[in-house]
Write a structure and sequence with these properties.
Largest sheet: 7 strands, mixed
CATH class: Alpha Beta
Order of helices and strands: EHEHEEHEEEEHEEHEHH
Helix content: 25-40%
Number of helices: 7
Radius of gyration: 19 Å
Strand content: 5-15%
Distance between the termini: 42 Å
CATH topology: Aminopeptidase
Number of strands: 11
CATH architecture: 3-Layer(aba) Sandwich
Number of domains: 1
Strand order of the largest sheet: 3-2-5-11-8-10-9
Shape: globular
Length: 334
């Protein structure tokens, strides 16, 4: 979800999977120099990124359900550490920049699919006590798979580690140094704490709000290519709406307080959020998708289903196809 104030994307360190702690200590300096970079993997698997400060390697799996949360002034968070994939070679950070023309070759177009939040800074906690990070990871993996299946072989999955603010810059650096052609951050929504209600689930007190539901799409007018960001966001909103989904309307309401945001299109559910680092500091078009509300008890169950993940992934892939088609049409006219 978008947390209080600078809501949305918490973060962490980008993972470098090494062959062991001894290797890491001998090569830490060299690893830091190559730091940040996305690697292609086969469709159906997460394209884990490197963390130059890590030296262990495990297979990639989603974190499990959390223990009972403690009540706090902000969103409750629990450390859930995902297991990592085996070591893979680091991509060449000196690779040539992607073309800045209007052309869009799916096989070469570089899309970063960013998994919102981290295992240590998990974002929202669902009505049934599951971390937002878990939902984000599962959906982002499915979107990556779908995009690659549709021919967008340059799609990369970005998974970060650690605490919230430090990795915001790292996420931006990854995309800017690739350089990526498009940045898409995946999240799931909640509500401000003051709107939460109590209920009992599995014998323990949990928190929920069934008042709001739906997806929402965010862009920053401060992005270097706001026009293109908005165009892609509009396509995502139209595709999700065309698949029977409704967007979340609460961000314009006074009850949201400082979490209010301007609605740019009342038909598609595209909002502006100009202060989000991953939207304003990326040097390519950037969009953040809140796929649905996991604090809503009914919608949480839908968001956890393969069917809903497939529906959303299909919408994103269709939006990407139309995005490229529109670029090719402009080139053809010239």
């Amino acid at each position: 979800m978008l947390p209080k104030g600078a809501k949305g994307i918490t973060s962490g360190k980008v993972r470098l999977l090494s062959s062991g702690r001894k290797w890491f200590r001998r090569h830490a300096a060299m690893s830091a120099a190559v730091a940040i970079f996305l690697l292609p993997v086969e469709a159906g698997h997460a394209g884990w990124l490197s963390d130059v400060f890590k030296g262990t390697s495990k297979s990639a799996e989603a974190p499990k359900r959390n223990a009972a949360p403690k009540r706090a002034s902000g969103p409750v968070r629990h450390a859930v550490e995902p297991r990592r994939r085996a070591a893979i070679p680091v991509a060449d950070a000196s690779a040539p920049s992607a073309s800045k023309s209007l052309t869009c070759d799916p096989a070469r177009f570089r899309i970063v699919v960013d998994v919102g939040h981290t295992a240590k800074s998990e974002g929202a906690i669902s009505a049934r006590n599951v971390a937002e990070f878990v939902f984000n990871l599962h959906l982002a993996q499915r979107i990556e798979q779908k995009l690659k299946a549709e021919g967008f072989a340059g799609t990369r999955l970005l998974v970060t580690e650690g605490r919230a603010r430090p990795s915001l810059a790292r996420r931006v650096n990854v995309a800017n140094k690739m350089p990526a052609d498009l940045f898409l951050s995946i999240h799931h929504d909640s509500v401000p704490d003051k709107l939460l209600e109590d209920w009992e689930f599995e014998g323990k007190k949990r928190h929920f709000s069934d008042r709001f539901s739906g997806y929402s799409v965010f862009v920053a007018r401060t992005n270097a290519d706001f026009k293109t960001s908005l165009a892609f966001a509009e396509l995502i909103g139209k595709e999700l709406k065309g698949r029977g989904l409704e967007y979340a309307k609460q961000f314009t309401m006074p009850i949201m307080g400082k979490n209010q945001h301007p609605l740019l299109n009342k038909e598609t559910g595209v909002y502006s959020y100009d202060k989000l680092i991953v939207l304003k500091d990326t040097r390519m078009p950037a969009v953040l998708l809140e796929a649905g509300s996991i604090i809503n008890r009914d919608e949480e169950l839908k968001m956890d289903s393969p069917e809903r993940r497939d529906l959303i992934a299909g919408g994103v892939a269709a939006a990407m196809q139309k995005f490229c088609d529109a670029r090719r049409a402009v080139v053809a006219q010239h």
